[in-house]
């Protein structure tokens, strides 16, 4: 059970660390990946986010509302389907997204400190495999990798 323990420890504390780093931007560790995706794909459909991230749809709705309230994104109705929304980054989001990406990269570097490049590659492959194993067991459809942008 060491793996479960240390996955939990790493998850909790990287989020605390990332929350502190992202606080000046008015966002947190659960919002950054959505903001980055919207900045990288202006006009993305809100519904398509549900197919990219392994979170409940209500969490996406809550996160989008928070980002909109923070002045990071705007929503506009989809001309083809009025039940869905297109999401766009604001000028403010576009002006800070590179800084946010840098903070995420530094956080990842901190997590992987003291690990060789080949160990990082192996660790990443194993972590992806572990994620695929648990989602397959739960019959969760494989999603697009949202950080390939």
Write up what this structure looks like.
With 149 residues, the protein is mainly alpha-helical. It has a single domain, classed as Winged helix-like DNA-binding domain superfamily/Winged helix DNA-binding domain (Arc Repressor Mutant, subunit A). The protein is built from six helices and three strands; from the N terminus they run ααβααββαα. It has helices spanning 2-22, 32-40, 46-50, 57-69, 91-111, 117-137; strands at residues 44-45, 73-78, 81-89. Strands 1-3-2 form a three-stranded antiparallel β-sheet. Strand 2 and strand 3 (81-89) form a beta hairpin. The chain is globular, with a radius of gyration of 17 Å. The termini are far apart.
Give the biggest sheet: 3 strands, antiparallel
> What is the number of strand segments?
3
Shape: globular
Distance between the termini: 34 Å
* DSSP helical segment count: 6
Unreliable segments (pLDDT under 50, ≥5 consecutive)?
none
CATH superfamily: Winged helix-like DNA-binding domain superfamily/Winged helix DNA-binding domain
Helix content: 55-70%
The main sheet orders its strands as 1-3-2
Average residue pLDDT: 92
Strand content: 5-15%
How much is the radius of gyration in Å?
Answer: 17 Å
